Amino acid sequence: MIRFAAIVATLLLASASYAVPAQRVDPSQPALRCPEDLILSEDGKFLLTANRGTGTISIVDRDQGKISSEWRIGQSIIDLLPLPGQRLLALDGKANEAILLKQNGDVLDILSRVTLPYSPVKSDVSSDGQQICVSCLWPRKLVSLSITGEQLKLQRELILPFAPRVVLFVPDGQSILAADNFGGRLAIVDANTFTVRHIREFPAHNIRAMALSPDGTKLLFAHQLLNSLAVTNENDIHWGLVMSNELRWVPLDFVMDVEADFYGNGFMHPIGEPGKGGGDPTDIAVIDDLQAVVSMGGTGQVGIGKYEAFGLFRVSVEEHPTAVVVSPEKDVIYVANGFGDSISLVDIDKAETIGRISLGAVREPKLVEQGERLFHNARLSMEGWMSCHSCHTDGHTNGLSSDNLSDRSYGAPKRILSLLGKADTAPFGWLAVSDTLEQQAKSSVKSTMHGRALSDQQASALAAYMKSLPLPPPIDALQATRDMTAVAHGRQIFLRNNCIKCHAPPLYTSPEVYDVGMHDKEFNREFNPPSLRGIGHRDTFFHDARATSLRDVFEVHGHQLAVELTDQQLDDLIQFLRSL
């Protein structure tokens, strides 16, 4: 009996090394797939979508123009990477896995899975197909993977000074570019040693896409740019002064040369014009060396632009386009509609939509899902220049300041607050002007975005979505740097300095406003303290973003310390804050 149990245990352990097979599902069953990515199969016959809402991959037959099959392979598939040999890599954002698959027509087989750090978001592969780079958002990590036979293997990890999203191998195979998910930073990483060579900075936030021209000489970015010197009145919004959306072509050599001004020497397509904004660019597909298409997630459109030609040919598709792919014949653009559960077909020469492919039956969205759609909808704003997501990227913050009447005045820009974990932290805003998230949502659309007034139902949906936004785990846990002794010492320093007066556990905030010895440009002196939970995921601090590190909060600005701390005491206090 013991021998039999041992044999069974051995077989179970052996079977654990094999991947659970993909499960074919019926597309006629109502669901919200929410396609997040779109790729072409290696032979060009099929389109494949990564479905965030269902953990499935849909396979569409291009010739027949309809869904061919749908396969459940995980919990939330958010990224697809085509690989040689009819293989592809899928990222599961909920299960934190990379999944290697083999495609045979409209059939998918799972070859292997590998566990990744928390929150993988994007991937790219070297030109020789030997190295895969995956970005992991909240740990601020890049991961290097290799493929041996049919097995994925995690090789190395690299911690960056920012939270990465888009990653891209440079054609020579020696470098990887990793873009900041929230701000305007770009890391140049040595692909061989997997170390950071340089960090470039440029005026941008919400960098959602990068692409190379076919000749490899130009790098294309899609991003937004918030101007803290503009005010959110109708004039500045109309002229694109508050929030601009950009498709920028820059010389790749200038990007790699750290002494060169790559941003200033690039060419910019404004995604939007007075009267017709282009909120929230989401993806880029290159048509040829001089033409590209960009999707505008906030306005339900794509724009086709030519290098050094002003303006874009804009084409309406469906709600929240997330990804674009150009056909091998260079005549059609395929667009994945994230809230439409569909693919739109756009004729490149005519610049018009010529077809639609459904991914399957669709169910009605729940209240939280309705709120998510409103959160990403730039048409809530005047002329479609911005959505809630434009400033609160992925529900968090771009770390910048905006002069938006949140303090009921113009003249004192305020740092944009994170919405993650805000559900129980009323009142809201730096001056505590909103008692509920519903009230805050209505105020933001009216005063910041200058859109049509939200209905009570819309405000409830937006509030439900914002309440659902979870905090990521503490940064020290994600980076495996937690020192329990230092955290305990830091907590005692936190208590001895009476920091709990304003930042009271367990939410590490309080509902009052306090004079903390600083004022804004309108001479407001009393502010509501933001929660310290998740503070390790922020890069700027105080109402005007005057501090750019936790150390500067105390060393430079001497924030509310009863006594001067030794270097060790300050280190321990910061360790405690990073553990929240």
TrEMBL record:
Top-level taxon in the UniProt lineage: Bacteria
Chief subcellular location equals other
Example of a GO MF term = heme binding
Q: What is the lineage of its organism?
A: Bacteria, Pseudomonadati, Planctomycetota, Planctomycetia, Pirellulales
Keyword DNA repair (UniProt): no
Signal peptide boundaries:
1-19
Record organism: Bremerella volcania
Task: Spell out the GO cellular component terms annotated for this protein, sorted alphabetically and separated by semicolons.
Answer: cell envelope
Where in or outside the cell it occurs: the entry states:
Cell envelope
| Record's protein name | Di-heme cytochrome c peroxidase
